[in-house]
What does this fold into?
Amino acid sequence: TQLLEQSPQFLSIQEGENLTVYCNSSSVFSSLQWYRQEPGEGPVLLVTVVTGGEVKKLKRLTFQFGDARKDSSLHITAAQPGDTGLYLCAASLRGDKLIFGTGTRLQVFP
Amino acid sequence: DTEVTQTPKHLVMGMTNKKSLKCEQHMGHRAMYWYKQKAKKPPELMFVYSYEKLSINESVPSRFSPECPNSSLLNLHLHALQPEDSALYLCASSQDRGGYNEQFFGPGTRLTVL
It folds into this structure.
């Protein structure tokens, strides 16, 4: 059973377009992280959201944690080719165990 | 220093070989992790060390043997691997921050088993 479902699985867009990636669960989490991973590299932590309803911005990226702390979204404004990669949400399940979402593969064409 | 380093970057080994993957962090993090990642999939947790002691083993086959010589180093010893063990092996470290688990990953070792 996958605790964290991401949608869409794949996204292929032109430079300049906006997009939203969703991370959904039936479980409540104390915190949720978003990572970006480029091919052949390790995931890079983008943000951690902790409070229900919290919104965090990182340049053109906006992250939101659902009020009930069961879901999160990542919105990218005016996507650029450098945004291409695998986006992963992740949440702590028990102690040190981090559960990753199913992943969203984004391709931004110039 | 906010980096997790891994060596080697690439490794090709036969099924009868013994090799080791190495990971190092100098951020003073108390927890270190090994993950396995197959193509187009999210990372899968293998092992967790907390304060240099093995705290989680996700039912990993014994042909993978982790070792934590000190708080900065983590090794993964490989022996008699199978071709299906070919994957990207990621190391990560973390430090508690108000109860949530932010992990910092190394660049990974791309392992190919022939």
Notes: The mean pLDDT of chain B is 93.
